[in-house]
Amino acid sequence: MAYQKVNADQRAPGHSQYLDSDDLQATALDLEWDMEKELEEPGFEQFQLDRAENQNLENSETADLNLDSIQPAASPKGRFQRLQEESDYVTHYTRSAPKSKPCNFCRLLKIFCTAIILFIFGILIGYYAHKKCPSNATSSGKLDLQLYQEILKTIQAEDIKKSFRNLVQLYKSEDDTEISKKIKTQWTSLGLEDVQFVNYSVLLNLPGPSPSSVTLRSSGQCFHPNGQPCSQEARKHSSQDPLYSYAAYSAKGTLEAEVIDVSYGNADDLKRIKEMKNVTNQIALLKLGKLPLLYKLSLLEKAGFGGVLLYIDPCDLPKTANLSFMVSLNPGGDPSTPGYPSVDGNFRQNRSNLTPLLVQPISASLVAKLISLREDRASSGACTPLELPSNEKRIVNMQIQTVTEFKTITNVVGYLKGLTSPDRYIIVGSHHHTAYSFNSQEWASSTAIITAFIRALMLRVKRGWRPDRTIVFCSWGGTAFGNIGSYEWGEDFKKVLQRNLVAYVSLHSPVRSNSSLYSVTSPSLQQLVAEKNNFNCSRRGQCPETNISSVQMQDDANYFINHLGVPTVRFAYEDIKALEGPSFLSEALFPKHATKIEEMDPFFNLHETITKMQRLYFIIKNYGWSYSREMLLGEVILQIADGPILPFNALDIALEVQNSLKGDQPDTPQLLAPASRLRESAELFQSDEMRPANDPEERAPVRVRMLNDILQDMEKSFLVRHAPPGFYRNILYHLDGKTSQFSILLEAWEHCKSLASNETLQEAVSEVLNSISAAQLYFKAGLDVFESVLVGKN
């Protein structure tokens, strides 16, 4: 048999290099062997060359090779091609058929090695490409600039305005069923998941069949709470009627007694009054503000008063002289089930009133009539606070009529399930109108804003994106009666929320004025909010003071702050001049019409800005890039819900504690050393655990989860067991923006001024000391856990 080297240029065009002749196609044996492999095969010595000298195959394309046995020759493609078959092939070729098993093994080995090399090479390419190039994936956990911009573009003032007007058309419904159905229908149509009603049967204190009245014994004149004479025909009963101004859960009945002016009703005021007069079973003329109403009523009750005429001084809140208002004496939740949810089967307590005092809100114009204010004084340019002359005596008869009934209040709750941590919740809460109450029209603003945000989010969700953590949208019922809806829902799901709730974002009454944006937030979130507030002024070259504080709020965040210790944030447009006046004036609820909201914000630009937050320069250190653009209130939510690391600052809590101990309060020096240790532990936690976690290359999933679990529970250490009525149990929040000291220490110090014993002060100091020590041990335990994890890995 003879073999010849075949060159590519000898092949006819269009012929495959593997199919050069009909003989090759018919050949039974495929003799495409590798030269080196063939030489290594055993038995190769049987093959002998007829000629001792080998010719160079490239010298002649037609040279014949006379072989006594098979001599492999390599083609340009490294393959053998058989050309002809000799007659004495069998005699010369004494070797058996080629061994297929070793050949197949070698070929498989080559393929396997090649695949391994390609696989390793692909991994290396992928690693360096991922390291150098940002991911284009829209998975949650990535702060995607394009994602936020797309959400931003879908939020429009006109949509918020339209939603607002649709909601206020249902305002006069006799119950909140129609409003709740409307909200649920809207949220469901937008694609929000598992939108549901959560109903509770609760005890409500409502206005009686006829308005309450105040009668002057000296003249016999009778007045309704707004100052209108009783002789005029009363209007048809409506909770929004100004004639029906009342205090929910007040005692009811009739009391005739002397009116004693106690001003704002603090400890000093009462001490001064008690030294002058016998106050037992008398009627206190009390101004709203400066301290929580429930606290002041508790002081009046201890002093022995029998009734209270409550009003707002026009110098504190202008344009309210002729307005009636409503207040609630309920600290929170259903009064018939204190501390546990109002569900079927639970015991119901008989609590028609929450105070033995007869409390009646009245207008400032009625107060002027009671004290016989002269016309020249009332019309003078300067504002003079209302005050009953000390040398004059006024005896009045006050009659209060209320009824107590069980009513159903409805919460609307919807979910946007998280992708990687669906068991961690961020609640975004607003409230809707509850019948028989002074809800004004602010509920429609908050509901329209939260609906606009849901619409923007769900448009993105339909394109495949989801946040890491679950966002729960809630519209609460029964807010005007003491945040009943949020309290009952919180008590109902308390065990789950204690473990899984990360933060609460409040949209309660977002537009109260058109002057300045004001933020109330937990200390752990102040840095995040401050960054967002500082961009607007950076381009103008001058920055006003940032309006951020940690003060008590009168809204549905109450339960989550005081019973769960959850970081909270709220944005609202406020009247800064009003904020400079006495605090706690927002405890009064006025019947405000829809036209008032549209007068303050006719084009709903403020509503849009609240939803979008405001312009700022924000640096994402975690990902090494920065941008300037319109930021969202929604981005605060998204950064908490979607960021790999919760944006809570441990060190800010320690600094807030130290600032709260400044001043000349007695018995606080013993708290300075624990506060210093807390700061040291927080600084160590911040540097050793939080900073490395902000580097994407150092984020181990287990460490990130452990870190976030520690961050979300930081504020729980500051929940004290007992607080004065109306005071927050979470001592990180102050009474107002003018005081920085711990509120329970301030109250205890004021209380001790009128007592010989300082037992109350010592109890308060112990509460604060225990909170600081618990927080310090909490951070230390967190550091120990991380250290043990590292040691275990090593």
UniProtKB/TrEMBL annotation:
InterPro entries: PA_dom_sf, Peptidase_M28, Peptidase_M28B, TFR-like_dimer_dom_sf. It is a single-pass type II membrane protein. The keyword Membrane applies. The keyword Transmembrane applies. It holds the Pfam family Peptidase_M28. Keywords: Membrane, Signal-anchor, Transmembrane, Transmembrane helix. The chain crosses the membrane at residues 108-129. It is found in: Membrane. Its main location: membrane. Residues 411-575 form the Peptidase M28 domain. Belongs to the peptidase M28 family. M28B subfamily. This is Inactive N-acetylated-alpha-linked acidic dipeptidase-like protein 2 isoform X3. It comes from Vicugna pacos. The gene is NAALADL2.
